[in-house]
Structures are given as C-alpha cells and as structure tokens.
C-alpha cells in the first residue's frame, strides 16, 4: 500500500521554455545614449501596426503627419502621446526660486484637472482637444491613431481614437489538459521588521507536500512551478548609505539572503522555481532588471530547478505563455493616470501593446538605441503583476478570441497570500497562510 501511495504522489512535470532573451542586456553598453531613440523605435513599430489597422477602421480618411494638418480638414494622425501634468514632480523644482506651493491633490497621484494631452511625431507636435481622449486614462509614451481635424486655435479636435488592441494570440487547446498548478508569490520582504519566518515556512511546506492531509498533499503533487515575483528581500537603508560597514553590519546585510536561500533550497529540491528581481532586491534599478546573481544563492542555485530570471519575465509552461512584472510598471501608471482598479491598468498595457509606456519618462529604463523590448507582440495566456495591495483577477476576452488571465499578486509579507493558477482552465484562487492561533 505504501508503494501505491508513493506512486500516486509523484509530482507532475511540465515543459519549460524561457522567453526572456528580449529583456536581457548583453552587448549593449552605456555610451551617453539619448532616450529619444527608444521613442523613435517605439513610434516606428507601433505606427506600422496602426497603419495596417486604419483601412478597417476609417478607410475613407487620409493619414497625414502633424506638419501636414490643415484647419477644418478631417484626417487621421498617428503619434506618441505626451501628457502635460501640472503636478508632475520635477528635479529642477528643488532649485527653482519660484517653487510651486500648490499642495498635491493626492499623495500617491499627480493628476490635476488642468492636465492635457499632446500628440507628437517626427514632424512636430499638436495639442489635443475634445472629450474622446481623457487625460486621466492615458499617459506619456502611448502610441495611438486619432481621427479629427485642426481647429482655428491650432489644436487638434479628436473625434475618435484607435488603440493597437490586444496582440494576436497563439491558439492553444486547454480543455484536453490535466490539472497542473503554478504558484505565484511576491513581496516576501525577508529582512523587514514585519516579515514572519513561520509564515514563509508554512508556504514552503505546503507547496513541497510536507503539510496537510492526503488531499492537500495530492494537490501539492500537482504544483509544477513556483514564480517568486520580486521584492524577496528588504535591506535597511541605513546599511546601504555607502559607508564602510562594521563586521556586525555585514552580517545583517547578508542575513536576509541566507534566510531566503534556505527557503529556496527546500523548494528547488522539490519543484522548479523562477525568481525575479524587484525594486527592493539587489539588482539594477532600471528596467529591464537583470537576473539576481546566482552567488546570492549558494544552496538553491546548485539545483537545475532553480532559475534566476529577468523582470519583466516571459516564459512558457506546456506551451501556455506567461508574461509578468514585479509591479514597477503598474505602480508608475497609478501615479500618472487613474482607473477603478489595478486590473484596468493591466488591461490598458495589453491594449496599448506596451508593458511600460511611462518608461523612460517617469520609469527608469535602459536607453536602448534600436529597439523597445517592452512592446508586446504576442498575447500571453497569463499576465501577472506582483507586489500589489490585494489579490485581484479577471479573465480578459479580446475581439479576435484572445483569452488572458490577469492576476494582481499581493505582497506576501503583508497579506500572507499566494496565488495558484490551474493551467488546465486558467482558473486561479488565493492561498492564505496565517500563523495566529484562533481562540
């Protein structure tokens, strides 16, 4: 009987394909490049796409550049949006004698009722008017096609907007698949004052099958992959101020990594895992963040199941495509635009076909000269974002039959919540780990 139960609890396997090559910085070097080049690359790629969509949208209208606009003549223009924001922080304000004393409307958001949009292409720029294009929805860096006409005041009155829309998706039969689960967790923040080692150990024991009854262990055996979505450690800013560290401070600096490595070693011995860098992790600040150095993980990195990945991260499991970030792109959108929930921001980035439209304007990124790695050319089946306030999910359906599971993964250190996705049907649910004893 013991042999039979052992056979039943063999962990399921899945085929893995990394698609991070686009986000890897290899031959590129900093040589004083200007960020204008990444905007040119973005506009060139997106304009080609939008031009191909215009005939099915409004074939009777001519397409022209900003320089070719004529007052009262209806046409279509394609370009990059720039949002003029009254409250947008500016480093020059620190040195300005006439520094604004106007208080921020919200401490986390820089929107103002006087904000307005401008469209720019290689020939020039024009201020946009009308109610079709809301400044609260759009951000600097989005490429769109606009139907309208120039007014006597020299502005462009927008009558309709064409976005790129969801990219094409490779059709994958889901119904014939078996139950296999992927677990997402973010914001472990090991080393912070609020971290709970027991909570982390419960998570590890659960997904490795060392916790629970036969049913829970049977479920654990169907977990084929773990993705750790950024902000795994948190180091005190006092230890990172550039001063020489005393020996006891050096110990405090390495302690979170040792604790993380112990946890990851237990997981890597049982199932494959991907770890992505986040804003608090020891990785480059600018996107795309490069993989965390394997020397930080002397125990877990010895397993071939351990993978240190980029942020953003793209991969396939059993031909199901996953795309995700550690949250910086969405967090930046919340500062410069508004939506009813975080899932709306995720949906917008897919419809704009761009993971991080605010980069490089307000979000740090590498100054690429000949490409924009954040363009989304193929629609993922699962699009996830880590380090959010709460767990949210939605199934997004595209006009051409695309199905995308959107997931906001909460910070585990604060919520004790991990997210589980069933690859068979793209359904997902939250797993909550608590250490409080109920009375």
UniProtKB/TrEMBL annotation:
Annotated ranges, domain DNA polymerase alpha/delta/epsilon subunit B: 182-391
Pfam family, one: DNA_pol_E_B
Organism placement in taxonomy: Eukaryota, Viridiplantae, Streptophyta, Embryophyta, Tracheophyta
Keywords for the protein's UniProt record, in alphabetical order: DNA replication, DNA-directed DNA polymerase, Nucleotidyltransferase, Nucleus, Transferase
The protein's enzyme class: transferase
Record EC number: 2.7.7.7
Name the UniProt record assigns to this protein: DNA polymerase delta small subunit
Assigned protein family: Belongs to the DNA polymerase delta/II small subunit family.
Subcellular localization, as worded in the UniProt entry: Nucleus
Residue ranges of every copy of the DNA polymerase delta subunit OB-fold domain listed in the record: 34-161
Entry GO MF terms: DNA binding; DNA-directed DNA polymerase activity
Subunit: Heterodimer with subunits of 125 kDa and 50 kDa.
Functional summary from the UniProt entry: The function of the small subunit is not yet clear.
GO cellular component: delta DNA polymerase complex
Substrates-to-products reaction catalysed: DNA(n) + a 2'-deoxyribonucleoside 5'-triphosphate = DNA(n+1) + diphosphate
Keyword Signal included in the entry's annotation: no
Annotated coiled-coil segments of the chain: none
GO biological process: DNA strand elongation involved in DNA replication; mitotic DNA replication
Keyword rRNA-binding: no
